[in-house]
Amino acid sequence: MTINENEKRVIGRFRFMNEQAVNLDGFATPAPELGLIAFDSPHDPLPSIVIRDGVVVEMDGRGEDAFDALDEFIARHGIDIGIAEEAMAIDSLQFARQLVDPYESRESLVRLASGMTPAKLAEVLARLTAAELVIAMTKMRARKTPSNQAHVTNRSDDPLLLAADAATAAAFGFREIETTVPVLADAPSNAVAVSVGAAVGSPGVLVQCSVEEAMELALGMRGLVSYAETVSLYGTEQIFIEGDDTPWSKAFLTSAYASRGIKMRVTSGGGAEALMGGAERCSMFYLEARCVALARAMGAQGVQNGGIDSAAVAGSVPGGVRSLMAENLMVMLRNLESCTGNDALMSESHVRRTSRTHPIFIAGSDFICSGFGSIQRYDNMFGPSQWNAEDIDDFLAMQRDWGVDGGLKTAREDDVEGLRSRATEAVSAVYGWLGLGDFTASWAQQAVDAAGSKDIADADLMLPVNASATIMDTNVTMLDVIAALAENGFDVEAQRCLDMLKARVQGDYLQTSAIFDEDMNVLSLVTDPNDYAGPGTGYKPSIARQAEIDTIRQQVSVDDLRVQQRQYRTFELRVIGTAETSHDPRDVVIGVSPATGRDIWQTLSGLLVCDVLEELMAGLEEEGCVGRIIRINDSIDLGKIGLAAAQLSGSGIGIGLQGKGTALIHRHDLAPLANLELYSVAPTLTARLYRLMGINAGRHAKSMTPEPMRNPYSDEAIEARYHTKVVALVAIERECSSNSASEMLEMVK
Amino acid sequence: MSRGYSGIDVDRISVDDVRRGDLTLEDIRIHPETLEHQAQVAEEHGNPQLASNFRRAAELTRFKDDEIMQLYEALRPHRSTVEELQTIADDLESRDAPLNAALFAQAASVYQRRGLARK
After folding, report:
1. How many CB pairs under 8 A join A and B?
2. Is A94 helix (H, G, I), strand (E, B) or coil?
């Protein structure tokens, strides 16, 4: 459908534009009445605080008698009374400037923010531009070392695939894995499978199973998962209550997790209230400011926000994407762990979704994504993510491009195959030992190889349901899983799972922004505080980590290419004498570059150089001319090679050919950089085109004016695909060039 | 600081102990003194609310899993009357859980004012 089709036919330029992916996205006219506004609704309250006898009696324009449940909880628990009056008196613009000033320490800013109301922080952060958000986030995040979180789910809750994919996610560097279920009853099985798979992949990977609050806590208490995240907060009382909780019940839940030594964070996100029709005419950012204040007031160590499931709602209004990042920064300013969204896919456009993530990616956060879909889009039971298995190589390339640590690392194919095998074996052993279910060998083989659940024909969809029922009925805990691993020879994995249980007794990972490194060290606000204070400070990858970022599996060296070229050495260009000038008017010299037939055997288009030469010779022959092949040793420049060939040629016409396939027709009396015809884009050339060049060279030799050859059209990123090879091939040409005289060659196949 | 809730020294627990079935979840649960220690760390790092959470949690270590689930359920909207919330608060007070008692007492008053209690 075209946008104006009822009115008139849309011109081609706009029909074409309308077809682009970005136009599948919804864009909303701002409507403050519906909460469809990013910042500064006319109905947002102005910041204020009144404290009487050590009690907040007015906050953000509302007296305590009119406090709703959210105001009340924030006022009673979330505002540092001793700092509030000092903090609220600071000019918002002044405070915004301090956020980007490297000489203002993070500690002094979080101290002041703890005395600020939701409306005050909303006012401050609305004043930062996109670039300022990047600087402020670089400074304000709690943990120095950035990290990333993966989603691991699939359509069939297949335990073998979950384990294989969890091990794979760990191999790619994810330090938290979040799973969920399409079928709620499968949750216990998923928790076991992902925890075992993660332990196969790496020590210290945190695992959660996102389900209904009570079930999630129950799984945590049994030790089957190691953290929780899906404890949702909303920015208006009505929506909060519709979510079947109050700030008091959520605060209790927060303590319940801590009482069992389980890390947890809460979830919120701008746009949620508007999506549910209960925004009370306030901006998304102000409502999110209330959520973040609540999170701190409840004593949660961290927040997952930045739109999350409603990111596309925020994305639909002006400034909405900026507000998502500002939400994350607000969490950091409240001295909490920030799991910075980039979770639910917010655009059909690759450009827009990259644009949404990129500033956070370069600033660095505690978790760049609160759910990078490490599995394919179709297997993501949260819905497709901003980033998915489809994009892992893109993300690794982006890390390498910017020298940025986005938490991921390259995994070798054979390593991943080994981990996937072991993960399926470990889960098979545990499920068998505990009487949860048996897997066929063909199912296991398919799970190891699978790129997604569609590749597994032999999965038994009833197994996860039955396994889950048994886990609940027989009260299986992580201790049973560890025993089963140990009994079946998975000692390393048993130890890793036990270490995760021990960690919750030690409690250090309950502190803000805690993750484990691969040696089970806790990295948190306490042990790894962000100390950014301008260039040359803050997080810097270790030499080993930088090498992981820089070394992606696709990179090739000149030596790799030299080896590759050698495989195509199926012919010989034999030297039969020194090059002599001909006086035969039918003579056309084909001048080839120094490395041709020495180190270069195949052109960029995949043709063998000998086949190219044969086509050129055949084209000349069609026009009654005779080709001679001469290697020009003293230049790698195609113009000079062609000109030298023309000057040796009896007809005065020469063809220049570089080993990589670029070719031209030259004439003896032209300047080197002038030429008659040129094929400049070697990767797109075909045998037919080289034949045509031979024909045209023959016609030029006969003083005719042939129809010029056309370079083939392509919309591919030819330069991206081939320039690294070109650099290497040119280097090889340079090595082969010398002052030695040009040589007459004979082709021997 | 690696004492489990049962008093066991967690650093000495091995996979073999688990395999022999010598342990229960009580052994690998956090001890209230550890939570008090973590509360002090949180205070030293600029987060008194996190510290309060750890102290409420320390009280809750003594409560069984299903009791905790029941207490959580009681605080959800429209589950409990104001009187029931106050009774729970009194009960928590008598069971040496004053911080959680205060949370329930405050909930009772706010739920009454905002209509969030069961009628």
Report:
1. 189
2. helix
